[in-house]
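From: lab user (bench 3)
To: helpdesk
Subject: output format question, protein + molybdenum atom

Hello, I'm new to running complex predictions and I'm not sure whether the block I got back is the full result or only part of it. Here's what I submitted:
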Amino acid sequence: MPDSAATAAAKPSENAGDSDSIATVCEMCFWKCGIKAQLRDGRVQALSGNPDHPLSRGRLCPRGVGGLGSLYDPDRLSQPMIRVGERGGQKWRPATWEEALDRTAEGLRGVAAHYGPEAIALFYHGAGGSFFKTLVKGLGSANIAAPSYAQCRGPRDVGFELTYGESVGSPEVVDMANARAMALIGTHLGENMHNTAVQDFTDGLRRGMRLIVADPRYSVAAGKADYWLPVRPGTDIALLLGWANVIIQNDWYDREYVASNSVGFDQFAAEVARYTPDAVYLETGIKPQVLVDTARELAQAAPHAVIHPGRKTTWYGDDAQRSRAVALVNALLGNWGQPGGFYLSSSAGLKGHPQQPPAPAHRAPADREAGQFPFAGSTLASGLREATLTGKPYPLKAWMVYSSNLPMVLPDPRRTRAAIQKLDFLVAIDILPAEITGWADVVLPECTYLERHDDLIAPWYREPYVALRQPVIEPLGESKPGWWMAKELARRLGLESHFPWEHPTDLHQARLLASGFSLEQYQSLKQRGVLRVDADPLYQPKDALYQFATPSGKIEFWSQQLADQGFDPVPVYRRPEQPGPGQFRLLTGRAPVHTFGRTTNNAMLLEQFPENEVWVNRRAAADLGLRSGDRVMLRNQDDVTTGPVKVKATERIRADCVYMVHGFGHQDRRLRRAYRNGGDDTAVTTRFKTDPLMGGTGMNLNFVSLEKQESGNEA
Ligand SMILES: Nc1nc2c(c(=O)[nH]1)N[C@H]1C(S)=C(S)[C@@H](COP(=O)(O)OP(=O)(O)OC[C@H]3O[C@@H](n4cnc5c(=O)[nH]c(N)nc54)[C@H](O)[C@@H]3O)O[C@H]1N2
Ligand SMILES: Nc1nc2c(c(=O)[nH]1)N[C@H]1C(S)=C(S)[C@@H](COP(=O)(O)OP(=O)(O)OC[C@H]3O[C@@H](n4cnc5c(=O)[nH]c(N)nc54)[C@H](O)[C@@H]3O)O[C@H]1N2
Ligand code: SF4
Ligand SMILES: [Mo]
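Helpdesk reply: Thanks, we reran it on our side. This is the complete output you should expect:
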């Protein structure tokens, strides 16, 4: 490798103007807080929260502050590379941009000519993906997927859509700051560190919100809770339907609200009657009195009470139904459009570029067979992998992978490797030598979010706004922004018309003007990083009925849509398989200072959280002769191993499961700090269950045993 990116000369971007502070948007995770970057002598000195930005409110989470560790990571990809030798053999030669882009265009063109453009798939995650989506759509393929659907929040969205006709979005429309009571089902806020969510959560707690946390692990949030319910993993549907039953039996719900806003309540009430506190106790391990007390807490605070819908809900393969159960208990609390419940979001309604041509006609995505996963609302990343493996419903022969480290993201990485071997062409666009780049034919080094423009950002939120990502410094090394790569590829593929702008600033300006904003507002956006817009009301007026976007126009306690497709119209609890002797169910989660595997090579963040540990119940650990600090190998039911990982023996977790933070244990040597540091949970996630409603991949189904590593053997 040539000079590392970190030592390359840097000059401030033109946005610096006379000022030494530039407003832009964070991408250390996908929440997209507004930041201010301080510059000195062409180097970024510090990142802080933009006080004008509604998601940061002047504050950042630790990862946002630690963005400098990613910008100046000496392991960054700094020049294009072309594979020599076998795929996966990890041998490349440096290439010029001209050559690497020609090669990429040739690879895509070849596959399109042979198999049709639909044989090209794009996997992406993050704001920069939009330019590559435009490219792949322009080619005529609909095989475009982000793992944040089928591996993350898809089941939750579907559970809410089936019930309310709409999902809770991102940022989630949970009015935590004003809630008087809240229940968390797993959702480990405080470790799950979405900045504004954590601010709202702590505001709620400061105002006296009562908190109930159901989690097999005593999470950070459980530490703040009035009730910790150490539920047996995989039994939350029983818990939720138990709450519903207690609320109904005790007449703790608003009959009038239910009568005028919902359908199917009587059938629902009849279905959940069997989830008595005693029956629920046998499944969940939660004492009957605790079930009743917590149901009362929620009901008494209603409608200013909420069961948080969570985010990563891909746990057991029945997740859309669990999310529906969450949605239905919320319906009993009557909290839609209410303070302390779910607020009504609005957006700036940004229009596209006026000259953007429509995408050409295309085949339906290959991620499922006709009729499969009828409620999937997005293309399934895992489904595209299946199609690549099986060639059904039709073959996928090229992958373009933008900012998604698939070998550590999709469950059963063995299948990911096998699928990659079926490809004619794989191009990876990344900032780091992540594992996916090790499988690529061409590697295109992107510059980081602090060195580039992306498209405008205008989400649905409490208040509408538009935010701008703009470069703080020029790209380091030979890295380039994604928009430039996409445009260059479009030119080579005869798709220039799909990029009707020269530079992203033209795109931004055209979109803003088309949406009724002025040039002055655009100037202000560049200065302040954000444009705030007048808001619609946050809450539903008392006497007006909300028009739900379900087939009935009301909240659906009993779902005809589900019945028509042969699914349970009311969620039904089914007991999950239990680990055998000597086995533990593997659960995973987040560390407050890391984002998946994206930051586990970031020196600044590693200083605060150097490696992941496996949490083991103290008594279970003692039975195995394990103490905190020992190192173990995790071996799963399929004889696949990961580790060695440090043991954390603790009372803070049940004895039937172990827990580790996702994103460690990288296998690519070029990630010098992350290489073999800690354990990779994905490696031992070889078993997963696909949600029949929508194709989400439940991953909490792996059972591991722990094998002590002698200290001399430490790798
Ligand atoms: N086993 C297991 N699997 C999971 C999860 C889990 O907890 N356990 N979590 C799931 C969830 S909730 C989600 S949302 C997904 C997340 O899935 P991904 O977002 O795909 O997660 P990462 O593995 O962090 O991959 C991000 C890749 O993007 C690269 N990257 C970072 N910044 C940039 C950039 O600016 N430009 C470009 N081009 N590349 C960049 C990083 O180097 C890395 O290779 O994973 C899911 N999969
Ligand atoms: N710092 C940081 N914050 C992040 C992220 C990050 O990478 N880093 N990623 C963001 C993203 S994309 C997502 S999707 C979210 C993910 O965060 P969440 O939406 O909170 O989802 P999970 O990570 O699945 O939740 C893990 C928690 O669920 C508990 N749990 C496991 N199984 C069960 C069960 O059967 N029942 C119950 N009741 N609890 C269970 C675990 O013990 C753990 O405390 O975090 C977001 N926030
Ligand atoms: S939550 Fe943290 S990492 Fe995510 S965008 Fe905000 S500051 Fe950045
Ligand atoms: Mo996620």
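A quick orientation on your result: The domain at 81-146+378-445 is CATH 3.40.50.740 (Rossmann fold). Let us know if anything else is unclear.
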